[in-house]
Design goal:
- By secondary structure, the protein is an all-alpha fold.
- It is built from seven helices and no strands.
- The chain has helices at 2-45, 48-79, 83-115, 126-148, 151-181, 186-218, 227-234.
- The radius of gyration is 20 Å and the shape is globular.
Length: 235
């Protein structure tokens, strides 16, 4: 009887550790989402103060990555999780670097904003504003799917990534046209183009997080399958 109670206690204690780790990852995700939203706002509105805030706050995300990585490694070493618990810890270990890289992209967008000099015509930011909001919502949905372990939402986010690729290509062509028409705006247009590239990378990292969710729930690695195959794998 005592052994059974001990096993229950250990199991309950482990569940608490896993939930705590998951909540910390979501807190990191919240900070990353805030950094991304602020970097987009700073770019669109040319808000230098906000861009500096994003740039200076990146260290917080880096510190969380190190802390959560250490905690995840400790759990693997001490608890020796199996089955779904092991998949959860592995999904978390893979998610943490993607969140850190999204933070890096937000910092990069802020850096591009800080490099821009003078007034920039609003027409250059119309498409960027739409892309920025779309990507921010993708990240939000990916984190929501992680929190609720929602495979359907994860699949939706992965499909949304295709739209981001299309919008990024459209913005690239548009900016190249602007540069050909007026070479004087080349420095500004390049900064916007690099920012658009950062948003495209954020979407890719959000997709990665959704792949980890599906791995955790279904036990299937779907990194290299088509979206058509994905429907069959997750049904």
């Amino acid at each position: 009887m005592a052994k059974q109670e001990t096993r229950k206690h250990i199991s309950h204690s482990f569940d608490i550790e896993l939930n705590d780790l998951k909540n910390k990852v979501l807190s990191m995700g919240g900070l990353v989402e805030e950094q991304l939203a602020n970097s987009i706002t700073a770019l669109i509105k040319h808000d230098i103060e906000l861009a500096e805030q994003v740039y200076n706050n990146d260290y917080k995300i880096n510190a969380l990555e190190v802390s959560l990585d250490e905690e995840s490694t400790r759990i693997l070493a001490i608890r020796h999780p199996a089955a779904s618990d092991l998949r959860l810890v592995m999904a978390i270990i893979k998610t943490i670097p993607d969140l850190e890289r999204i933070g890096d992209q937000a910092e990069r967008i802020a850096h591009m904003t800080l490099q821009m000099q003078g007034e920039t015509p609003a027409k250059y930011f119309v498409a960027m504003s739409h892309l920025g909001e779309y990507v921010r919502q993708m990240l939000h949905n990916a984190l929501d799917a992680f929190a609720r372990v929602d495979v359907d939402m994860a699949v939706k986010v992965m499909h949304d990534d295709l739209k981001v690729d299309q919008e990024y290509d459209n913005i690239s062509r548009q900016l190249i046209t602007y540069m050909m028409e007026d070479p004087r705006i080349i420095p500004i247009a390049l900064n916007i183009l690099w920012s658009a590239r950062s948003l495209e990378r954020v979407a890719a990292h959000a997709r990665n997080i959704c792949e980890y969710i599906i791995y955790y729930v279904k036990g299937k690695d779907i990194r290299h399958i088509s979206l058509d195959q994905l429907k069959e794998e997750t049904s």
